[in-house]
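A protein record pairs a chain with a discrete description of its three-dimensional fold. The shape at a given residue is found from the number at the same position. Here is what such a record looks like in full:
>
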Amino acid sequence: MKRTNIVLALLVLLVGTGLWLLLHKKAEVLISFPSVESKNQKSQKTGGSSRAQASTAAQNAILSSDGNASGVSKDVMEYLKKIKADPEYDGKQPINFYGRVVDESNVAVANANVHFEWTDLSPAGNSEADTKSDENGFFSLRDRLGKRLIVDVVKEGYYSSGDARNASFEYANPADGLFIPDQNNPRVFHLRKKGEGVELIHGSQLFGFRTNGPVQYLDLIQGKNTLTPPGDLAAQIIRDSRNNEARFNWSVTISVPSGGIFETNEEFMFEAPPDGYQQSIEVQMMTNDLHWVAGAKKRFYFKSRNGSVYGWAEATIYPQYQNAAAIDLDYYVNPSGSRNLESK
């Protein structure tokens, strides 16, 4: 009797264990592993790149169930919907462009060389075209398809301004700022006619400074940094210790002994101004300044040595450089007394 009971107990235990394993196995099938597997299988079947998958994932993350997303403009949302519906949407946008080339006096420049390059659906992923400006400086590109257009304008005997070098225009993604072509309001590209260049002293040098030390003089003709005149520039850098936010109060004063300094943002600094010079320029930065930065950049003309030397410089200021301070200076100097600063 006892033996029969033991056998029956073992049978019940085996059946119970089998039912538990079966139910547990079914429960495992309901866990979300198949979704991960399906992504891998889909990637293998379609040959899709991880970049494309990441792009699609990002789009899906932005696009919510009702087509809205916090902090995303409506036009960007519409754009995301379009590229989700048609992955080739970017390359199908109509590209038309109208431009005009002028010189530093806003006079039309004819026969300037204009090079176009745009991203598209061609096998290479981009296409190119070239044209020339007409007698009134106008040029155009019409009836092309693509996403982003690059325009480069050059002409022999001219310098190309920043707006004429690899200017970029977006035709598909509003998040990058859509360019709207207007034949009646062409985009203007500036060139500057080359003048008569002269021999200049050019230097690019990092000058070290004592923090909270005396005024130091920069002799740009000799390329020296001294504590005594003569000098074409004089500078002093003051700096406090860092606070808990790693900020510090600092200031720099740049002046010209026996001369003056003229701050500017001109792109082509080819002629020093005849007047309008100041005694010095100064930068002050306090730890509580909203836009505090640990350095600055200044661009200026200078006349030194009682007007016998003219030049221009771009100074990158480092109030803390290793254990001291420094000014990285790129400069051009005409020691002849002429205001001509266009190099040969």
User: Anything to note?
Assistant: The chain has four helices and 18 strands.
